[in-house]
Amino acid sequence: MKSKPGEGPALEPRAAELLKLLVERYIHDGQPVGSRTLSRVRGLELSPATIRNIMADLDELGLVSSPHTSAGRVPTTRGYRYFVDSLLAPERLSERDEEMIARELVPHAGEGDDLLHAASALLSSLTRMAGVVTVPRRNLAVLRRIEFLPLSERRVLAILVVNQHEVQNRVLHTDRDYAADELERFANAINQHFVGHELVRLRQSLLDDVAAAKVRVDQTLLQAVAMAEQALAGAGGRQDYVLAGGSNLMAFQELADVQRLRGLFDALDRKRELLHLFDQCLGAEGLQIFIGDESGYKVLDECSVVTAPYIINGQVAGILGVIGPTRMAYSRIIPLVAETARQLSKGLKS
Fold it and tell me: How does DSSP classify residue 331?
């Protein structure tokens, strides 16, 4: 399981116990947790004054914080991370959930797209959050060659050869006429730098290279990348991930701000941020958890993303996961994601 290195010293047992109780209570109730609430926990055997002192220490360590509207405290991203890495005991998946996952996925074994959609919908249904499954890497279109040919009236014909022999043509509308030798230089620059890249990843690579080209003042590559980016708009021919249950996120109070929801839904639709996040998971081992701003994308600052790889023929082929608020039931979500990944891997081998 992904564990970002813990910051600071390990907590002494009483502080760790109180942090665990606070996180679990906040996940369950969604309300700031006060010292008085914790003092009523059966078997805790700590005085209210001791609890207040320990809570103040946790606050100073950055593991909890106090909302302006309440005397109670809530976990911070750092607090959730400590909880997940050091205090969490994932639940054993119930037989009911195991049977449901098998029942929903087994009928689609070997059916490719149907199985991916079933897995995404299943994760959404079981968690009441958003379920995501990336398309297997072996199914993604790969650029083999690109050519640009001049047309009349400020138009350019882009010819993309993808995978082995598939040809895609696009007419580009440009701001001026281009000579054939100019377009040949552009195509050569793209072919030199980007042949063999998956189209759904290539657009981001092109945008990154635009910035790099500006620094290098490489005008040929700069113009070539700009033209290729236009040619690749909508290229690839397939979805790069399957999303189910995005509307479920509206049910969580901490995500219900209109501006925040708009930004989140825009990101889910635009896909670039999530695909970059999932790309990181492809090269890592096992289950991964990104909490709040750990993702590196501001639009996910109030969210957690729990992912696991699925396997085809012994190789990591893609990623599936759940997107929800940081206040998610990690002990339940983690085994659900892991078992769904296992069953998806099994189904794709059939």
Answer: H
